[in-house]
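seq as requested:
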Amino acid sequence: MNSSDANAPVAYKQPTKLEKHGDIRIDNYFWMRLSDDQKLAPVKDEQTQRVIDYLESENSYYEKVTAYTKNFQEKLFEEMKGRIKEDDSSVPYKDNGYYYITRYETGKQYPIYSRKKESLDAKEEILFNVNEMAEGYEYYQLGGLSISEDNKYAIFATDNVGRRQYFLRIKNLETGEILKDIIDNTTGGAVWANDHKTIFYTKKNQTTLRSEKIYKHILGTSEKEDVEVFHEKDETFNTYVSKSKSSQFIIIGSYSTVSTESRFLDANTPSGKFQIIQPRERDLEYSVSHYKDHFYLLTNKDKALNFKLMKTPIKATRKENWVDVIPHRKETLLEDFSIFKDYLVLEERTNGLSKIRIKRWDNTKDYYLPFNEETYSVGVYDMPEFDTDIIRYSYNSFTTPSSVIDFNMNDQSKQIMKEQEVLGGKFKKENYISKRVWATARDGKKVPISLVYHKNTVLNENTPLLQYGYGSYGATIPDGFSTTRLSLLDRGFVFALAHIRGGEYLGREWYEDGKMLNKKNTFTDFIDCSKYLIENKYTSAKHLYAMGGSAGGLLMGAIVNMNPELYNGIIAAVPFVDVVSTMIDESIPLTTGEYDEWGNPNDKKYYEYIKSYSPYDQVSSKKYPNMLVTTGFQDSQVQYWEPAKWVAKLRELKTDSNLLFLHTNMDAGHGGASGRFEALKETAMEYTFLLALENKITHETIKP
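struct tokens:
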């Protein structure tokens, strides 16, 4: 260890021998893994206390070394908070005779959910004031709101730990009474049958947290009397329950990375039997919506790599009865669709850019909404109204704050219902420049990079640049507006979003080419984007920073092992870095469902490939960039011990004197803090780390 790290925590080493396929790995920090029972136990055993002591020592080390930045962090927090309209509210939407509104009050962390009957001028009815519900909790999340068809009852879900294991409760909206019904360990999702008393909900496996069972609950009865209606026994699948927009059907869906299966039941006969639409087949995916006497299916049937829209009669749902509605197109990814009485609305992506297509069922109209910016983000709201000519969509870009727009599909007029207000008096859209450039990857593929910076920022080798990436699960990170990011842009930073393989920015093939045995394309794409930005004088290695979270944290771990010399600093949030050990252990939440994303290491071929890039396994004795690693003690998505072990091993082996911080939120899970302002404090911490490395806080350099 470098002498300048003398004050850094030194983790206890207890070698554990791990063997697979004849390959032996020695893990000195395997002991950091605790069970949920150990974490939640009121009295801590020796191992638990040792883990907590280590995490807290890392937190203390971070606090000590960065003490001189605390005033700046607070200033940054207040600056970002000052751009937010605190007394804000959503655009009301109408459902079953009521307008529903979510609003915030000045100084309050959590939302207030309310409704008004028939008219926006009617008296407000408070459904849930989450500020009152969250009192006394360090973490609190309300979700899963579902109103019965008679508008009398609301199902709601609460999580006060951060592990996404929700309690389901029921509230009588007429009396305000919380019923005695309580169901634990659910996904938070639940739907009502049309008899106003039957509820279908999803249970999780207590150990793996896999959503695996659907139950039926009758209002006013004990959870012990609930009936299991479906058990997803395949450990590579998860399950969920939903309701069709038409309110006619209850849908049970099962899904893995490459296969889906759905069942349906008439919502008017909740005691009936679910019928399978199409039995699961490997590499066949479909999602279901209902319209008149057909089911509509977004599917990759017939090798439709970018998906297409098909329909099938409700009375004949097997795939041989499916017919094309919107055929497959090689150049266009069909991402989603919405059904209205007279119109079909399609959400598409071509050459990375989102499009909204409007098509009348009688084929008299078929057109696209016009969007003019080079990079932007647009999405259609999932509105419950069916018999309407109005769709609601959101639009924003790197330089344009978010707007909520109601568009009349009939006369093509639009009304801006809400524009995001950026308070503080300093923001002007025309002060910022955004564009898209294309880097050439080592295999010749063109990788798009979306950029944004202040117009006064001079682009050269001295310009600080933050490059962000994710690149997994087919997720596309949108080119969206951020009020917090302004704090970097106004201080001379360029923000670059690399649309690397593993996402679906350039279609489904872009995803397929960045997973399983192609996973390394994700990492090399990001590195090649970095090299492009350096070679084209947007920045230099002395001023280039990279950031990613979760699977994007894996990306960060991989690039610093492969090309640490390219970056001055790295932020890895809740990083998935111990890939081999996690993917081997089927008891760890989410593992079995990930085999078709990363590969199953029980197969030697995948074991060797995963090990060849797994950040924890590939840490070696060399120089690493300055690094800030964050995690949550209650994280169920990426367990805290992955980043904790990674940092401990980095401390042991790295040969540089650069900063290495591990900060653990002892009260939060994968999503970080739950309050809207507490989350800003985490962003302020991350930005302070970057700005301090650029000496934009004081003239002194941070030193341990």
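The two ends are 13 Å apart (CA to CA).
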